[in-house]
Amino acid sequence: MAAKSAAIRKSSHGSENFIQKLVKNPKISFAIALLIADSILVALIIAYVPYTKIDWDAYMSQVTGFLEGERDYSNLKGDTGPLVYPAGFLYIYSAIQYVTGGQVYPAQILFGFLYILDLAIVVFIYLKTDVVPWWALSLLSLSKRVHSIFVLRLFNDCFATTLLHAALVSIICQKWHLGLVIFSGAVSIKMNVLLYAPPLLLLMVKAMDIVGVISALAGAALVQILIGLPFILSHPASYLSNAFNLGRVFIHFWSVNFKFVPEDIFVSKAFALSLLVAHLSLLLVFAHYRWCRHEGGLLAVVRSKIIQLKLRVSQRNPSSTKKVLQADHIVTTMFVGNFIGIICARSLHYQFYSWYFYCLPYLLWKTPFPTLLRLFLFAAVEFCWNVFPSNTYSSLVLLSVHLIVLGGLWISSPEYPYVEKTTDKSTSKKAR
């Protein structure tokens, strides 16, 4: 009886603490209300807005071929063409086909839950970083296009995006190896997640010793091998060339960005190469002058790791050199790195908006812009993504807004990257 009474008192005390947290932190209350309101909105969309069939039949055809025993990627095709996603896509949509019987309506309900799960993960990231004011969290629920991508189109981008956000949560919580495993799982569904790879690698180098970096990367590589193993063992060339084709050229008509570029230039190798050079150059400039500013630049970070490796090899300093990174620094580096990739992408289809929409409020509030300008830029991006078909003007506006946001991120003050521990080992504080 005494133990039962103590348990009741402990449960009551825990409930009181939770209520006190809700009262003291309006962000938590608002986040819960936001999730409930968006759940109702998603249910109404599924019930009353007509479904638009785009890739679903192709997905089901490709999955059916896989389930019937086909292991040659070149033979897995649908009405939109051959399969171009890694094998994780097949496993996910095989499970969906099993659960839903290949029917659209139950799949929409499943994707509705996925949308709310993804939103909850993103809200958690925003609460951990505390960059965006509580009322601005509502922006995460205001995209007509993103709601459509999830529950009216059922694109595989939704699963890749959700896993990416889950990986980011693991990394924020300093679970780097788990985060890399989840990240690799996201890549196995759609390769766009690799846009996050350069900033992620930099963060790993800053936070971990060389052994930790190598073991985490090995874990991510092992996930890819295991997921693709049935295809690698039977038709390796077909799997690698189709699932990881980095040279695909998208149709000019369907692109939301660079629509103002003439089609003959748009599909040219010269244009693709120029965008790649711009992408890599921007990553290097931001890495050197922004993300590694407090360490003395990118070269200083690399030099310090080389020195640590030499000391470790000589066994003069075998101890670990792990550092704890601020959540703000992790999220900023990841979101900005991905955003640079979005700006330099030759083609963005409508479902690709999910690749970076959830970054937008965070990135806008990392700029020094006034609130009204932030809201205007957010609305402008959303407007461009809802123009169908895209045209010269909407494409120019989208690129202009992207560049304005990137400029704002460049002139903003970079956050201090590391958590500084106090004399009390159980606590830590941010450097000011």
TrEMBL record:
Pathway terms, separated by semicolons: Protein modification; protein glycosylation
Domain of life assignment: Eukaryota
Localization per record: Endoplasmic reticulum membrane
EC number: 2.4.1.258
The UniProt record lists the keyword Zinc: no
Gene Ontology MF: a single term: dol-P-Man:Man(5)GlcNAc(2)-PP-Dol alpha-1,3-mannosyltransferase activity
Substrates-to-products reaction catalysed: an alpha-D-Man-(1->2)-alpha-D-Man-(1->2)-alpha-D-Man-(1->3)-[alpha-D-Man-(1->6)]-beta-D-Man-(1->4)-beta-D-GlcNAc-(1->4)-alpha-D-GlcNAc-diphospho-di-trans,poly-cis-dolichol + a di-trans,poly-cis-dolichyl beta-D-mannosyl phosphate = an alpha-D-Man-(1->2)-alpha-D-Man-(1->2)-alpha-D-Man-(1->3)-[alpha-D-Man-(1->3)-alpha-D-Man-(1->6)]-beta-D-Man-(1->4)-beta-D-GlcNAc-(1->4)-alpha-D-GlcNAc-diphospho-di-trans,poly-cis-dolichol + a di-trans,poly-cis-dolichyl phosphate + H(+)
Membrane spanning residue stretches: 28-51, 83-100, 107-127, 147-171, 178-198, 210-232, 270-289, 330-349, 395-413
A GO CC annotation given for this chain: endoplasmic reticulum membrane
Annotated keywords: Endoplasmic reticulum, Glycosyltransferase, Membrane, Transferase, Transmembrane, Transmembrane helix
Record's protein name: dolichyl-P-Man:Man5GlcNAc2-PP-dolichol alpha-1,3-mannosyltransferase
